[in-house]
Amino acid sequence: AAKELVLEVIRDRDGDFRSGRSDFGGRLGGTSLDVAVPRFAVGIVIGRNGEMIKKIQNDAGVRVQFKADDGISPERVAMVMGQPERCQHAVHLINELIQTAQERDGFGSALRSTRVRGRSDWTMGSPGPLQEVTYTIPADKCGLVIGKGGETIKSINQQSGAHVELQRNPPPSTDPNTRVFTIRGTAQQMEVARQLIDDKIGGSGIMSNGGFGFSPFTQGPAAHQK
Fold it and tell me: How far apart are CA 116 and CA 23, in angstroms?
């Protein structure tokens, strides 16, 4: 009876499961493919509030789920589950999104490499290129951003579309009373992520554009420490 209830829920959520129990077994028991997604492209594949990954699942008729993040590897692994031909279609859709992200990131990297000290990408005016900044907050506020089991930082990533992660090995010169996060995404996505972080810590941190100096609108972390 429990199995039938589960199948009913699945049929309600995904029309591709209409043929019922036997097709359900074939779908999930068919194929599982792993797709390596560069970190800078994860936000695009997931989409705002998970809309893009839902669209991939609906269009291809598969299940897509990112494996646990080790916080170190340059790529995240997306697991695609379903019938073989549908999995291949989903992989194609994901690879197209990765290519789009690479093209945008290539433009963004060119901006970063030609930027002079102190110049900010925020003034470029184009929302398209992916950029990267660091955001420094007081160490005692770090747990508020990470959340239990990483739930809060995952929520920030999903809501903003940016990719936010804690730097495991910050430069030796970093103030031990602070923690440094890396934020990647478009200017708009990074601004949303910054606002979400500020909401969590009840203040604001220090934004640094690709290591080229601090933004002029922020102050030192001491101002935000108790």
Answer: 58
Q: What CA–CA distances, in Å, run from 175 to 159, 187, 203, 216, 220?
A: 29, 26, 18, 19, 11
Phi, psi of 223 (to 5 degrees): -70, -20
**Dist CA 24 CA 4 (whole Å):** 11
Check residue 203 and report its DSSP letter: S
pLDDT, tens digit, 9 for 90 and up, residues 181-195: 999 888 888 889 999
Report the distance separating Cα 66 and Cα 74, nearest Å: 14
Q: How many CB atoms lie within 10 A of CB 152?
A: 17
Cα–Cα distances (Å) from 188 to 6, 130, 185, 192, 211, in that order, read 39, 10, 8, 6, 19
C-alpha span between 147 and 153 (Å, rounded): 7
Q: Yes or no: say if 56 and 64 are a contact pair by the CB < 8 Å rule.
A: yes
Q: Is 187 helix (H, G, I), strand (E, B) or coil?
A: helix
CA distance 141 to 122: 26
> Which amino acid does the sequence have at 171?
P
Instruction: Please write the tens of the pLDDT for every residue from 65-84.
Output: 998 888 777 888 999 998 88
Q: Return the number of other C-beta atoms located less than 10 Å from residue 149's C-beta.
A: 8
- Cβ(202)–Cβ(185) below 8 Å: no
